[in-house]
Amino acid sequence: MKNLPVSLLLFHMVQKNKIQPCPCGNGVYQACCQPFHLHTGLAPTAEALMRSRYSAYALGLSDYVLSTWHISTRPKQLDLQQELAQGKWLGLNVKGHWPQGNKAEVEFVARYKPNNGPASRLHERSRFVQENRHWYYVDGDLF
Question: What is the pTM of this model?
Fold first, then answer.
């Protein structure tokens, strides 16, 4: 866990003894997305990476989201803490996963509820690329 951001280390220390569901909806956080967030494991598929990115959004782990964004499309900064202060992510539904060698697409619907206002849905078909055994989010098309 060397070289992890302080916020992620603190989150891990507080959460490590609690069994909690994974925000991505695919099991227990400690066995699902947490190893990817702690950089102790690599997402084996683009779908696993997409689920871990959703969980990172839900938990406010900006550094992880940036580290899994391909350098060609990655923003310079991202503040998920501000986003979390304005609402919360409610759930994820993966519609499909289409791997093709070192590229893949994943279609999903993520639900978000702002503190003030109705819930909304983000429906996207995302593109991913694998380089040196690491999957990266490239971009996506919104529906």
Answer: 0.88
